[in-house]
Specification:
Layout (H helix, E strand, L loop, with lengths): L2 E3 L2 E8 L2 E6 L9 H14 L15 H11 L7 E2 H8 L3 H9 L12 E2 L13 H11 L7
Parallel strand pairs: 4-5
Antiparallel strand pairs: 1-2, 2-3
Helix pairs in contact: 2-3, 2-4, 3-4
């Protein structure tokens, strides 16, 4: 099953009872029950009926897990900087940026809500920064200067 979102087709991957990846493209196989639930929640998000996801996610380990949990705590419509997250978790901002770029579950773990101090930063999904901006606009990000 594939979700046809405003940002193109999306599918999910799960392993061991946790979602492990959001794929920017169609799925070649039928979804598991967990993947189907994740797609249902994403559809609610795109219909503006869901602001928080309630799914078992693979957070990764070490710094990646810390950064992903910090990103997941950013409310819809808000942003944080790499530096703010770095300060909160006690890590260098560059390492936070690398962890954001390695996020396998964009949207579910909202790496698009993390910006540079004076820049948008990057975004590894198709469309890059343009997709990041579109997601932030979709969410009504406060103070977005673009």
């Amino acid at each position: 099953m594939t979700l046809h979102s405003p940002f193109g087709p999306l599918s999910l991957r799960a392993t061991g009872g946790r979602l492990t990846a959001l794929v920017w493209g169609p799925s070649p196989t039928p979804p598991s029950a967990l993947e189907a639930e994740g797609l249902r929640q994403l559809a609610e998000y795109f219909d503006r009926r869901r602001h928080v996801f309630d799914l078992p996610l693979d957070w990764g380990e070490g710094l990646n897990a810390q950064v992903r949990r910090a990103m997941a705590a950013i409310p819809l419509g808000e942003t944080r900087t790499y530096g703010e997250i770095a300060h909160d978790i006690g890590a260098p901002a560059q390492a936070v940026g690398q962890a954001c770029g390695a996020n396998p579950l964009p949207i579910l773990i909202p790496c698009h809500r993390v910006l540079g101090r004076n820049t948008l930063g990057g975004f590894s999904a198709p469309g890059g920064v343009e997709t990041k901006v579109a997601l932030l606009r979709f969410e009504g990000a406060a103070g977005l200067l673009i």
